[in-house]
Every structure is written in structure tokens, then in C-alpha cells.
């Protein structure tokens, strides 16, 4: 992993940029915006993807695989993620040439260029909350520029250039880069300690969020319910703090949440109450909506139109996304990769599955998180899923750690009959099909490449007899 060096100078002008890891949701969004600015764009990724093909159609030069030859002679700036190795040949050559080599967060800083910035931060819910804000603002006839961590379903993109001065971003706390931006309004969805491989301690994690909030120019919008957010709130010195959640003293209060289908709820602010319903399930999305509405109020919009605008949000890609139905079994995918996120995703699924069962296919993400939280993963999976198919760890930027595999999680289940560790993907797909029956939901969980198993699962369902009990 390459840790971002935020002290490196950001070029004033960029004419040709090369993106190492251009296929990622965040990087592809940045590359798209560079193209929209008239900048020549090239890039590489380790595997082909729809994102690469879309960028190529827009005029980018893309390469599958990392090779020094991919770095054109005209490139003046190289943008990279923290997920590449220092030995990456394109990264090494860029350094040798003396090019500007900047982290993706610095590229985003360059794009923002001093506009009025809404930064959405938090351990969970960032992508959904950012998507809610962007679609709501557009519905309210505001045309913001935005960069999200995932594709917004009704827009089909993760980024876009707007005509108004407002800029909305998903701000990443994992490596501290959310502290780089000159934020006007800070939205903190929650502060559930994560990425301790970077921060070291929970106290350092909380302190970073407090600094992020206190440095906001205009306002802080923060959860009233989340335990970590409350700890951060104790450290706030900001003159304008707006809270949201189910707490009785929340500035924007959520109440009467009903989850038996698309979630409905009430939002109360300054004595006025508005009924709301989202087209997506889950109590957590009612809370996300409250945070988005609180930001809209802070931007000067009234409660009723703000709620109606947020109601139009149709979700983001890889958040409880239906990929297909085979033999009466629905196969979904969700980006959840932390125990809290897994619990929220599965709890939302429970509200709409009816009499069916939930079969989770979990791919643990990174060795450090798995080693730190394997008991918590086992607990929430055993509590919320009827059965779990456990894959092996997706290491991402990390080297393997002896003894840290998917079996570490499966071995922590109280009842071993509720979990099956299958490191081979085809065997995992076949096993899933053998136990699934009509009305069940199969949900892949993880922020690695677990979604790639979905075609195998659908194929296995199509050729495997229904499980006993249908």
C-alpha cells in the first residue's frame, strides 16, 4: 500500500493525466471529470471492466494490466490510489521522470478548486447519503458537481460536472484524506471505528473526525444516535452543529420507522412533521435520509420540498442491488464489508424477503479487518442470515497473514451448521444453489470482487434441482 503524501505539491495546470487503477468507482469518476474538463486522460487497471470501456468511449486511452509502456510521453500528472504497490512499474517510471505524482484525493482537491463544498464522511452510509444529496439537489433545481464512491442508480454515473457553485463529495476517512478538503458543510453519518491499521487507536480515529467537523466553514451535520458520533460531538467547538436521528433532541428527528417493505418514517424539524417513504428498504436508509434532509435545510431549502426530493432517490450500484432471479431465488449484491454494514444490509433484506430465507455469501475484505473483527462478523452473520457461505479473504492492498482466512470467521459461529466455508468459487456457487429454495434471497457481501461470483450462482441455480422443502 502507498500511503498518500498530502504534502506533495498539486500542479496548478494539468494537460494530460494518467490514472493508475482507473477502473475503480472513485477513480473512474475522477477520470470522467478530467475528460469533461478537456484534459487528455489515460489509465490502466488490472482487469477489464465496464468502467474501462465507458471511459474509452469517452476518449480516454485505457490499458488492461500495469506496464511502464502505458505511461505516454505527453503525461504531466499521474494519479494513483493507495491500493497499488510501490513497485508498480507505471508509478516507478513516473517518479523517475519527475512527473507530478498525486493521490486521488489530491486530484479531487484540484477539481474542487475552491467551490462551496459539502463533504460526506462516516464509516458507513457515505455513498448512499451522497447519492441522496445529489439526486435531491437536482430535483430542487440545483446543479451540483459531484464525486461519489459508487454509481448513483438513476444517473448511471458516480460523478458529474454541474453549473452551480456547489460541489458534493464522498470524503474518505480511511487514510485521512478527508482532512485535505476545504469543507463548507460536513455531514458525518456515523463514527464506527474502522481502518485502525491507519489510525492506530480509536481515540485517533475520533479525533480525526472532530478535526474534520471543526474545520468546516459553515456547519456540521452529525448523527445524534451513533455512539462514536456522540463521542466526536463532545469534542466539537463549531458554532453551528445540526443533529439528525431518532434521539428526542435531534434537530431533524426521525420517528415511526416502518420497515415491512420500502421504508417509511416521519421527519420532524422546528415543530413541523412530514411523512416520508423511500423506494429502498432498511431502517438505516431512513437515518441516511434524515442526514441528507438536514444538509438540505442547512443549504436553505424548506422541510417539505427537501423530503420530497430525497424520496426520489433510487439507490446506488452495489447497495442491495438485484442481479437476477433464477428458480424463484433472488440474487442480490451489497458492498457491506464491516460488521455494522453487514447487519444493516441483512436487516433490510429481512424486511422484504417475506417467508423466504436469507443466504449470505460473505467475502471478508483485507486481512487486517478480518483479524480484528472476525468474531463480530460471525455474530452478525449468524444473527441476521439463515445461512452463510463463507469465501476466502480478499486481500486488496495487503499481504496474506498466516491463519487469517475465511475459515477464521466461519470457525467463530456458535452453530457451525449455519455456515459453510468454501474457498473455491464454483464449489461455493454450486453449494449455494443446492441449499436455496424458492422465495429465498441470496446476497453477496463485500467490497472486493465478490459480485463476480453472481453469474456462477445464477447458472448453478438454473441447473440445480430445488432444495428439499420447496
TrEMBL record:
Residues 120-295 form the Mur ligase central domain. It holds the Pfam family Mur_ligase_C. Residues 18-113 form the Mur ligase N-terminal catalytic domain. Residues 318-448 form the Mur ligase C-terminal domain. It is found in: Cytoplasm. The keyword Isomerase does not apply. Pathway: Cell wall biogenesis; peptidoglycan biosynthesis. Its EC number is 6.3.2.8. It catalyses: UDP-N-acetyl-alpha-D-muramate + L-alanine + ATP = UDP-N-acetyl-alpha-D-muramoyl-L-alanine + ADP + phosphate + H(+). InterPro entries: Mur-like_cat_sf (IPR036565), Mur_ligase_C (IPR004101), Mur_ligase_C_dom_sf (IPR036615), Mur_ligase_cen (IPR013221), Mur_ligase_N (IPR000713), MurCDEF_pg_biosynth (IPR050061), UDP-N-AcMur_Ala_ligase_MurC (IPR005758). ATP binds at residues 122-128. GO terms for molecular function: UDP-N-acetylmuramate-L-alanine ligase activity. It comes from the Bacteria. Keywords: ATP-binding, Cell cycle, Cell division, Cell shape, Cell wall biogenesis/degradation, Cytoplasm, Ligase, Nucleotide-binding, Peptidoglycan synthesis. HAMAP family: MurC. Cell wall formation. Belongs to the MurCDEF family. This is UDP-N-acetylmuramate--L-alanine ligase. It comes from Microbacterium arthrosphaerae. The gene is murC.
Amino acid at each position: 500500500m502507498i500511503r498518500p503524501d498530502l504534502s506533495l505539491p498539486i500542479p496548478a495546470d494539468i494537460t494530460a493525466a494518467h490514472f493508475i487503477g482507473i477502473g475503480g468507482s472513485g477513480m473512474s469518476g475522477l477520470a470522467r471529470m478530467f475528460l469533461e474538463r478537456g484534459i487528455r486522460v489515460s489509465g490502466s487497471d488490472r482487469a477489464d471492466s465496464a468502467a474501462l470501456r465507458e471511459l474509452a468511449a469517452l476518449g480516454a486511452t485505457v490499458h488492461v494490466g500495469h506496464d511502464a509502456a502505458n505511461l505516454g510521453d505527453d503525461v504531466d500528472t499521474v494519479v494513483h490510489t493507495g491500493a497499488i504497490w510501490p513497485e508498480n512499474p507505471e508509478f516507478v517510471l513516473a517518479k523517475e521522470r519527475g512527473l507530478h505524482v498525486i493521490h486521488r484525493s489530491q486530484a479531487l482537491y484540484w477539481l474542487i478548486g475552491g467551490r462551496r463544498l459539502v463533504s460526506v464522511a462516516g464509516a458507513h452510509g457515505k455513498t448512499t447519503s451522497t447519492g441522496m444529496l445529489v439526486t435531491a439537489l437536482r430535483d430542487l433545481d440545483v446543479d451540483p458537481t459531484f464525486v461519489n464512491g459508487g454509481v448513483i442508480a438513476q444517473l448511471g454515473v458516480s460523478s458529474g460536472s454541474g453549473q452551480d457553485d456547489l460541489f458534493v463529495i464522498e470524503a474518505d476517512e480511511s487514510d485521512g484524506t478527508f482532512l485535505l478538503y476545504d469543507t463548507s458543510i460536513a455531514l458525518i453519518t456515523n463514527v464506527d471505528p474502522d481502518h485502525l491499521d491507519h489510525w492506530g487507536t480509536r481515540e485517533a480515529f475520533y479525533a480525526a473526525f472532530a478535526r474534520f467537523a471543526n474545520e468546516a466553514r459553515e456547519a456540521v451535520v452529525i448523527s445524534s444516535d451513533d455512539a462514536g458520533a456522540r463521542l466526536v460531538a463532545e469534542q466539537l467547538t463549531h458554532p453551528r452543529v445540526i443533529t439528525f436521528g431518532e434521539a428526542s433532541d435531534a434537530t431533524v428527528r426521525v420517528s415511526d420507522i416502518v420497515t415491512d417493505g420500502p421504508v417509511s418514517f416521519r421527519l420532524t424539524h422546528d415543530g413541523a412533521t412530514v411523512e416520508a417513504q423511500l423506494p429502498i428498504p432498511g431502517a438505516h436508509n431512513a437515518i441516511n435520509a434524515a442526514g441528507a434532509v438536514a444538509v438540505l435545510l442547512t443549504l436553505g431549502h424548506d422541510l417539505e420540498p427537501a423530503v420530497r426530493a430525497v424520496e426520489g432517490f433510487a439507490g446506488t450500484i452495489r447497495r442491495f442491488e438485484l442481479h437476477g432471479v433464477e428458480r424463484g431465488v433472488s440474487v442480490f449484491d451489497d458492498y457491506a464489508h464491516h460488521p455494522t454494514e453487514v447487519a444493516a444490509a441483512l436487516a433490510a433484506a429481512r424486511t422484504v424477503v417475506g417467508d423466504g430465507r436469507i443466504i449470505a455469501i460473505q467475502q471478508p475484505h483485507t486481512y487486517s479487518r478480518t483479524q480484528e473483527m472476525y468474531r463480530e462478523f460471525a455474530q452478525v452473520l449468524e444473527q441476521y442470515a439463515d445461512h452463510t457461505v463463507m469465501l476466502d479473504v480478499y486481500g486488496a492492498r495487503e499481504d496474506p497473514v498466516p491463519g487469517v482466512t475465511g475459515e477464521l470467521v466461519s470457525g467463530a459461529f456458535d452453530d457451525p451448521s449455519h455456515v459453510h466455508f468454501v474457498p473455491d468459487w464454483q464449489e461455493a456457487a454450486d453449494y449455494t444453489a443446492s441449499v436455496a429454495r424458492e422465495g429465498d434471497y441470496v446476497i453477496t457481501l463485500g467490497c472486493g470482487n465478490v459480485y463476480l461470483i453472481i453469474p456462477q450462482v445464477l447458472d448453478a441455480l438454473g441447473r440445480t434441482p430445488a432444495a428439499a422443502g420447496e
